[in-house]
Amino acid sequence: MSLPPLWAALAGVLLGLGVATLCGWTIGRMFMAGLTGREKFAWSFAIGLMVQALALLVVVAVGARPTTAALLGIEAGIGIAALLAGILRRRAAPGWFPAGRKFDALAFALAAVAGAAWALFLLTAIADAPWATDFFAVWGYKAKIVYGAGSVPRRLFADPALDFAHPEYPLLVPLSLSALGVAAGRWNEPALALFYPACALATLLALWGFLARRVSRPAGALAAALSALCFFLYRPSNVGTAEIPFALAAVLAAVAASDFVLEASAGETARLAAAALFAASVKQEGALLSVLLAAAVWGKLRTTEARRARNGALALVLPVALHGLLQVVLRGHRPSRDFDLALLSPGRWGELPARFGTALARLLSADVLPASVPLLAIVVLLIATERGAVDWLLGVLALQLLGYVAAFTLSAYGPAYAVDAAFSRIATTLFPALTLVLAARLMSSEPAWAHQTSPPAGMSDSGESSGESARRAPRLHGVGTTGNSRNEKGP
């Protein structure tokens, strides 16, 4: 007895996502030592999506029509090669679930909230086919053309009649949707919607794992819960767009940069590069975020560790440049139709202040005022709590938002139209990254006895049993604190 079409398609999409994640793990295992199992899943998922898109491009590049066997076969071949490379380099394969866990009731409760919110999003996402305008006009449109044609047709980039599909946009999301359609053996839009809860799950796990390792388990679970409850991001109208994948990209870039600032090794540098490439491949905003993080990393380290500062900045910038070069090779030079770049000519500089003011005024009236209560709560929280170890991300996120306003100033359709059409939607993609700062501040307070010269009997300075503390390094509780990325064992 055969499965109903939707269930068969869902099984195929799950197979495609699973193989991609496993393939990503075989590559990422070489620079994921010390991460929690949750983080390893998130990184494996993101790397796997890039490998899966590459596999699809390889198939069409040789003139073959993509099939399930060909696509999964290439991914399996890449995974096996990565495993062999790791064995030859004699690198220990980090396990998914290291030992040494202990139950934390608060973390469990917060994780349950996050899980329930994510399950609700899962059900709403696959209950119907994606219906967002951007899915029909941009991301899903390109994916369906690639799937139907069995290639990446030149007309996607050269045909002026298809300018509405934004040929200048990055291709990872359309290629991922097309590859999952190939893996499923059919184009089934409700099944392909499963891609978005998968991205959301990877985002929540990345937040949870990083803060559990760097701050505390409740901090990680709180960040996951806050993000999962962001229904302005995780809602059906964003299924089929690039917003939810970009939220994952922003979180991975933020945690990779934070790890690099705290302790640099080959693993942290490699994750920086992977995060930058993933962010730039998802949305154009990813290139800006990577450049801002590069400037922040360089600024924080240049006076004390100039070489490490340079390496970190290059690890973030070079993948963005490489991606831009590959896009030019694939589609040629296609200026964005969203922006009137003639405004940058000296003769029109006088128009920019008024346009910037228009964008800012519209943003305040249409987006900031309606969201004044949660925004005020965030401001009060930042004022009332002590500075945290990842507070430096606030500056990067603020500059990213300012970059959006500057882009709206150059809008070919007028600043007010651009704000109304895009700001609230793209701004919410940064909220999961912001929860890194919020949760670290709320949950990083040490108990009073942690400041005593001699801790209570049977307890170490970190608040754990002496046997467990031998397996953990100190957590981060404030600015200027150093730590080890291996201080959290367990998923």
What attributes characterize this protein structure?
491 residues; mainly alpha; 20 helices; disordered C terminus
What does this structure look like?
- The protein is mainly alpha-helical and 491 residues long.
- The chain has one domain.
- Helix content is 65%, strand content 0%.
- The chain contains 20 helices and no strands.
- Helix 1 crosses helix 7 and helix 9 packs antiparallel against helix 10.
- The longest helix has 26 residues.
- The C terminus is likely disordered.
Task: List the SSEs and their pairings.
Elements: H1 5-28, H2 37-61, H3 68-88, H4 105-126, H5 133-149, H6 155-158, H7 172-184, H8 189-192, H9 195-214, H10 217-228, H11 243-262, H12 266-282, H13 285-301, H14 306-331, H15 352-368, H16 372-384, H17 393-409, H18 415-427, H19 431-443, H20 466-469
Task: Give helix and strand order, one letter per element, not per position.
Answer: HHHHHHHHHHHHHHHHHHHH
User: Low-confidence runs (pLDDT<50, min 5 residues)?
Assistant: 91-100, 446-474, 477-491
What structural category characterises the helix and strand content?
mainly alpha
Q: How many beta-strand runs?
A: 0
Helix content: 55-70%
Q: Rg from C-alpha positions?
A: 23 Å
Mean pLDDT: 85
Distance between the termini: 38 Å
Number of helices: 20
Biggest β-sheet strands, sense, barrel: none
Work out the count of structural domains: 1
Fraction in beta strands: under 5%
> What is the global morphology?
globular
